[in-house]
């Protein structure tokens, strides 16, 4: 999509998108075709510029879409993003290839919303939809000198978000461990990041018992991928992002039932988000040292798969009794977190489709935020609010820490007594055993990574929830 910025509206190009606030209705100062049109709609149809209302017309001078924006004081970045999405859908319905945006506040978020709706879930259809016309050129009318770079930033964020969504939507027969490694290596090569990938032999040598056990039912081998970006000062402690990379979660011998198993290709959502962050972080000029750690496995059933009752020795040396093979994410993250603690980070943030329980607690609009450092969690929450990828802080109760102690090992991965109740909190209580004294925040995207009820600017399936949040949090 090409972006042009004009200081003044000339003979406008393509479809004209105009925002109208309630306060503007008394004194319309738009190009005359627009003002006349709005006045007529006010009189004949009672148009009040309510937020989210749309008007469109064909005038002699071209197509016009009027966007009702409500009251000026209520017009937030979130509304701008949603309105951008609505507007873009309308442009597509009107088959507009070129549009001109006039006077929309929070322009970059509006543009972000426009771009986010262009995401196409049909990446594997052999024939592309013939009747979709996508917007190719967007003209902005503005005197703001900083606007161009802001719009370019929006476009980069959306590209990264689309990339994460593509990965999360990809089924595990296509996104297998080799493909996941190729994706990471490609990103590393393009951006000159350092990359280390531990294979099966190295994982055994390191004694990463959690990662190896979870993958033991798969005919593919496990990998641990580590990406390193040095955007900060030499010697500055790195921020470490750890992302769950379960390419498919059958549940293992605690097999998932019908209606739970079908979308489990999403279980690498945390890892896909970390890759998305790395795909764009350098291009956005982030001045920080960042390390991404992604354990990649498949949780399958076979004669070599791990069993309930197995006792694992983790990379940290702690032993874990397996009480449920479907609580696998915490096992691979535990080893990855231990690895992270050895790199002397400023802090660690883990992101994972860790529990379905977080979806029961918070639905698909809020991710769960847990951890051991309130400042870190506040910062994640704030970043989420700014980009409309919300997070909600949840507690880890001391009793839950107790419940994960095992009679036969140091820990168990699941408490059979209390089961799924508070499952998200207990999963975090388990992870906490592996972060040492590092500052640690954890984002459970088990309810938000994938949706059947998309927001205005989302599509069915992968949402990318967490990607823009992490980038905002890291400071881009
Ligand atoms: N990958 C699942 C969690 C999940 C469920 C993510 C639905 C996205 C959508 C995770 O490995 C899992 O199976 N969690 C179980 C944990 C339980 C066995 C302790 C859960 O939350 O039901
Ligand atoms: Zn599971
Ligand atoms: Zn899982």
What does this 3D model show about the protein?
The model has no long low-confidence stretch (mean pLDDT 96). The protein has helices spanning 32-45, 77-93, 107-116, 147-169, 177-191, 200-206, 209-215, 269-280, 329-341, 357-362, 374-387, 398-403, 423-432, 467-474; strands at 2-6, 15-20, 54-59, 62-68, 98-102, 137-141, 194-198, 223-230, 239-243, 245-249, 289-299, 311-313, 319-321, 347-352, 366-371, 390-393, 411-412, 440-444, 450-451, 461-462. With 476 residues, it is of the alpha/beta class. Helix 3 (107-116) links the parallel strand 5 (98-102) and strand 6 (137-141). The longest helix is centred in the first third of the chain and has 23 residues, at 147-169. The strands form 4 sheets. Strands 7, 8, 9, 10, 11, 14, 15, 16 and 18 form a 9-stranded mixed sheet that branches. It binds ligand BES and zinc ion (ZN) (2 copies). One zinc ion binds at residues 249, 251, 326, 328.
Short account of what is shown:
With 476 residues, this protein is α/β, with parallel strands linked by helices.
What is this structure's SSE topology?
Elements: E1 2-6, E2 15-20, H1 32-45, E3 54-59, E4 62-68, H2 77-93, E5 98-102, H3 107-116, E6 137-141, H4 147-169, H5 177-191, E7 194-198, H6 200-206, H7 209-215, E8 223-230, E9 239-243, E10 245-249, H8 269-280, E11 289-299, E12 311-313, E13 319-321, H9 329-341, E14 347-352, H10 357-362, E15 366-371, H11 374-387, E16 390-393, H12 398-403, E17 411-412, H13 423-432, E18 440-444, E19 450-451, E20 461-462, H14 467-474
Helix pairs in contact: 2-3, 3-4, 4-8, 7-9, 8-14, 9-13, 11-14
């Amino acid at each position: 999509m090409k972006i042009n910025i004009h200081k003044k509206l000339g003979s406008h190009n393509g479809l004209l998108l105009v925002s109208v606030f309630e306060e503007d209705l008394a004194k319309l100062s738009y190009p005359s075709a627009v003002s006349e049109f709005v006045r007529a709609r006010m009189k004949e149809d009672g148009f009040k510029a309510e937020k989210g209302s749309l008007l469109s017309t064909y005038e002699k001078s071209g197509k016009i879409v009027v966007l009702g924006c409500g009251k000026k004081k209520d017009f937030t970045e979130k509304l701008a993003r949603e309105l951008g999405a609505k507007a873009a859908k309308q442009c597509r319905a009107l088959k507009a290839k070129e549009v001109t945006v006039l006077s929309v506040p929070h322009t970059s978020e509006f543009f972000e919303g426009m771009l986010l709706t262009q995401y196409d879930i049909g990446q594997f259809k052999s024939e592309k939809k013939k009747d979709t016309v996508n917007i190719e050129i967007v003209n902005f009318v503005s005197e703001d000198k900083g606007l161009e770079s802001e719009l370019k930033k929006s476009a980069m964020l959306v590209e990264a978000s689309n990339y994460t969504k593509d990965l999360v939507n990809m089924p595990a027969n296509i996104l297998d461990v080799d493909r996941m490694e190729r994706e990471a290596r490609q990103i590393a090569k393009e951006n000159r990041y350092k990359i280390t990938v531990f294979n099966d032999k190295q994982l055994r040598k390191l004694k990463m018992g959690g990662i190896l056990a979870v993958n033991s039912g798969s005919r593919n081998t496990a990998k641990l991928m580590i990406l390193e970006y040095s955007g900060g000062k030499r010697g500055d402690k790195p921020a470490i992002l750890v992302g769950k990379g379960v390419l498919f979660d059958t549940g293992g011998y605690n097999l998932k039932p019908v209606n739970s198993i079908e979308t489990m290709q999403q279980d690498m959502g945390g890892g896909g988000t970390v890759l998305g962050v790395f795909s764009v972080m350098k291009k956005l000029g982030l001045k920080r040292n960042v390390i991404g750690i992604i354990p990649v496995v498949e949780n399958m059933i076979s004669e070599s798969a791990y069993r309930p009752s197995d006792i694992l020795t983790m990379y940290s040396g702690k032993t874990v009794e397996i009480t449920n093979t479907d609580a696998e994410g915490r096992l691979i993250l535990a080893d990855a977190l231990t690895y992270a603690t050895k790199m002397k980070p400023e802090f660690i943030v883990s992101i994972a489709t860790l529990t379905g329980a977080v979806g029961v607690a918070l639905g698909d609009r809020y991710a769960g935020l847990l951890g051991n450092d309130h400042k870190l969690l506040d910062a994640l929450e704030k970043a989420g609010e700014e980009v409309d990828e919300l997070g909600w802080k949840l507690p880890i109760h001391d009793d839950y820490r107790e419940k994960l102690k095992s009679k036969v090992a140091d820990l168990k991965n699941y408490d059979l007594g209390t089961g799924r109740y508070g499952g998200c909190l207990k999963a975090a209580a388990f992870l906490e055993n592996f972060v040492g004294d590092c500052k640690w925040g954890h984002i459970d995207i088990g309810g938000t990574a994938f949706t059947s009820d998309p927001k205005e600017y989302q599509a069915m399936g992968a949402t990318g929830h967490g990607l823009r949040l992490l980038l905002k949090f890291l400071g881009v």
